[in-house]
């Protein structure tokens, strides 16, 4: 039988772009929560500004006991718990400590989702020196993609940050090739 007062870290799913707001609302209710953030410099046409963005989009960690679990769900902006094997997913204390430690040590931490990109995929560059160029992924190295360009009539291999590419739909590429 589990102790009713034993606190454990759970993960809640929030409305999009409500992570910091939910974190503040939970803290106002006396519930321990943690929304890891990273500092990013945004560039506008007339100025630069440092902003803090959540490390995990739409997720906030809460440290609650069985009595407080229901109270979290009534917080504005909380959509529900993240489940694993039909129970709220429990995150070990050392994992939360590692996240805090890494955010303190490394200022350029970010979460990059590489799902959906694999060697051999055709991609398009979204920004940078080779914007709108097409190519093929040769290798994935951390959060960079090693690729070969198609249209420049030579074998140029370059490393492109993952967030600067988009995967191309093969049907659309076939239509463009026949034009």
What does this entry look like structurally?
The protein has 179 residues and is an alpha+beta fold. The protein folds into 2 domains: 98 residues, 2-Layer Sandwich (Alpha-Beta Plaits); 57 residues, SH3 type barrels. Helix content is 21%, strand content 37%. Strand 3 and strand 4 form a beta hairpin. It is elongated and about 65 Å long. It starts with 7 loop residues before the first strand and ends with a helix.
Q: What's the helix and strand layout?
A:
Elements: E1 8-14, H1 19-28, E2 32-34, E3 37-43, E4 48-54, E5 59-64, H2 69-73, E6 78-81, E7 83-84, E8 87-88, E9 90-91, H3 93-105, E10 122-125, E11 134-141, E12 144-149, E13 157-161, E14 165-167, H4 170-178
Antiparallel strand pairs: 1-5, 1-6, 1-9, 2-5, 3-4, 7-8, 10-11, 10-14, 11-12, 12-13
The assigned structural class equals alpha+beta
- The proportion of strand residues reads 35-45%
Number of strands: 14
| Helical residue percent band | 10-25%
Which stretches are low in confidence, meaning pLDDT under 50 for 5 or more residues running?
170-179
What features would you highlight for this structure?
179 residues; alpha+beta; Alpha-Beta Plaits; SH3 type barrels; 2 domains; five-stranded antiparallel sheet; 4 helices; 14 strands; disordered C terminus
Compact summary:
The protein contains four helices and 14 strands. With 179 residues, the protein is of the alpha+beta class. The longest helix has 13 residues, at 93-105.
């Amino acid at each position: 039988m589990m102790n009713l007062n034993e606190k454990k870290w759970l993960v809640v799913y929030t409305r999009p772009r409500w992570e910091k707001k939910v974190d503040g609302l939970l803290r106002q209710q006396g519930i321990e929560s943690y929304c890891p953030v990273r500092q990013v410099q945004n560039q506008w046409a007339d100025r630069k500004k440092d902003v803090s963005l959540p490390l995990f989009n739409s997720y906030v960690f809460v440290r609650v006991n069985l009595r407080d679990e229901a109270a979290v769900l009534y917080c504005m902006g909380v959509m529900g718990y993240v489940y694993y094997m039909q129970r709220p997913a429990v995150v070990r204390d050392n994992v939360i400590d590692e996240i805090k430690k890494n955010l303190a040590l490394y200022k350029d931490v970010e979460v990059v989702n590489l799902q959906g990109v694999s060697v051999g995929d055709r991609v398009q560059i979204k920004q940078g020196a080779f914007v709108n160029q097409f190519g093929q992924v040769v290798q994935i190295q951390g959060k960079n993609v090693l690729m070969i360009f198609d249209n420049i009539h030579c074998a140029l291999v370059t490393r492109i940050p993952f967030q600067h590419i988009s995967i191309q739909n093969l049907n659309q590429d076939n239509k463009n090739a026949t034009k």
